[in-house]
Amino acid sequence: MLKNCVQCSTSFDFGDAERAFMKKVQFIFGETTVHLAEPTQCPRCRMLIRVSNRNENNLYRNTSAQSGESIISIYAPEPLWGSPYKVYTQEQWNADTFDATTFGCDVDLDKPFFEQFSSLSKVVPHMAVVTVSNENCDYTTGTGYCKNCYLINSSEHCIDCYYGKLYQNCNDVTDSAYMYDSELCYECFSMHGCTRCSFVSFSKNSHDCMFSADLQGCKNCFLCANLSQKEYHFKNQPLSKDAYETMVNDVLGSHATFESMKQEYRALLERKIWKAANIIQSEDCSGDYIENSRHCHHCYDMTDSQDCGYVQVGVNAKDCWHCSNIYLKPELCYETLGTIEAYNCAYCLYVFHSQNMLYCEHCYSCLDCFGCSGLRRKQYCIFNKQYAKEEYVKIVPMIIEKMKLRKEWGQFFPPKFSSFGYNESVAQEYAPMTKEDATALGFLWREQRDEPPNVSRIIRAEDLPDRLADIPDEVIDWAIACEESGRPFRILKKELEFYRSQGIPLPHLHPPVRYKKRMNMRNPRTLYERTCAKCNNPITTTFAPNRPEIVYCEKCYLKEVY
């Protein structure tokens, strides 16, 4: 069944599989059973509205609403709408003395639901950053069980990692993304079990490689692609060990030489063979970066999941549709973001270990709540106010009926009430927009401003010495002006030690600029139909038909590479 998106006017398919799933999700209030509403927006618009509520990279100095102390937060002190958000440290938010039901308010059926909920969200304190059991990781969010890490997000079990996204079980990894069980890596992307690699992407179990892509079980490879079980190779041709080591030593430590190698690396990526989709040990799946899953369609970054549709980042998910960043056995969830072990939840943000939740945010270990914010271990609450079960099951259907009349039911939290500007959120990473385009669609926008750095000297990046050996120790007291944006940035002491140990020249670009370039290596989360460049059989891939890359079906790719 084709429908037209009310947001962007494009047509989209509301198919039988999605309709069947939506019948499974039901909310029972006494004798009244409420089902999900049919979508009015296309999957892309729903995704962007959803992930515009997730800030992973922008940290601000804010003030605790409880103690007045200065703290690091994902919430800027200057609001984009209404009053500032109240923020607590994690310890304050988790303290037994904090009970968000003290902010509970009555339902007003004559007022729009989203206006009432957004007013509640503004007065209930939010956790400044979302972290679990870290040590010396104040400047991170979405991290757990990490030590001595700085400006990383969506990461667990990492030590001494800097500037990156989705590090899992990594040590000494800097300026990278989608890294698993790796160490001593720099400017790498989508790597599994790799060590001492720089500017390497889409590789597994490889070591001491540089400026290469798509390596499997390789060692000492330079400017290589689509290799398996090779060693001492340069541009896919074998070299003697001595010749190889001499060539690498000539490259290390020079910024000018690294820049030249990066240009060759980019050319290498354009001419290498690409597999249509990164789908491993999975059955009946479509999308990209899917492992050990089955019956997952239009999904991305999925592991050990089944029967899902239009999910971005899911672990152990089952029967979830139109969700983002869902972890640890979420089931029967629809239009949720940032959930852990959620069951039968819809239209929610950051709901952990909870069931039967509707239109809630930042609620932990809760049951049967509607329109609540910041609750822990509660049941039968509406707008943070406690009700008896009999009252709860009577009032919620009344609210939903009013929402239906106002065309609110089935819609996600409107962008105009988001905590973040579009350019602060993951949405900008998934689908970059200008301020004009984003605001025209109803999203907010944050004007970025840098505080004057408290440093002994500001030096232009292009004025830095070319050789790493000529960089003085005092550089950690300087600010470097980015070559592209002009924004100043600092080099940390541990960061400098890492560069020196690996022979890597200092970066000349501000961390967000480096991050953006790295994320550009990732294809858009959109599927296209095209044909295999080898056998001409039809394939479904994230490479658009008009793109120049050489894309093979899985069968042809495996035959060519292995």
Describe the structure.
The chain has twelve helices and 41 strands. The strands form ten sheets. Strands 23, 24, 25, 26, 27, 28, 29, 30, 31, 32, 33, 34 and 35 form a 13-stranded mixed sheet that branches. Strand 5 and strand 6 form a beta hairpin. By secondary structure, the chain is an alpha/beta fold. Among the domains are: 44 residues, no CATH class; 91 residues, no CATH class; 120 residues; 63 residues, no CATH class; 34 residues, no CATH class. The chain is globular.
Ordered list of secondary-structure elements with their pairings:
Layout: E1 2-4, E2 11-13, H1 16-24, E3 26-29, E4 32-35, H2 43-51, E5 60-63, E6 70-73, E7 87-88, H3 90-94, H4 113-123, E8 126-127, E9 131-132, E10 141-144, E11 150-156, E12 162-168, E13 171-180, E14 183-186, E15 189-192, E16 198-204, E17 210-216, E18 219-222, E19 225-228, E20 231-234, E21 237-238, H5 241-251, H6 255-271, E22 273-275, E23 279-280, E24 287-291, E25 294-297, E26 299-303, E27 306-315, E28 318-327, E29 331-340, E30 343-352, E31 355-358, E32 361-364, E33 367-370, E34 379-382, E35 385-386, H7 389-405, H8 426-430, H9 435-440, E36 457-460, E37 478-481, E38 488-489, H10 493-502, H11 511-519, E39 528-531, E40 538-541, E41 550-552, H12 554-561
Parallel strand pairs: 7-8, 9-10, 10-11, 11-12, 12-13, 13-14, 13-15, 15-16, 16-17, 17-19, 18-20, 22-41, 23-24, 24-26, 25-27, 26-27, 27-28, 28-29, 29-30, 30-31, 30-32, 31-33, 33-34, 36-37
Antiparallel strand pairs: 1-2, 3-4, 5-6, 20-21, 34-35, 37-38, 39-40
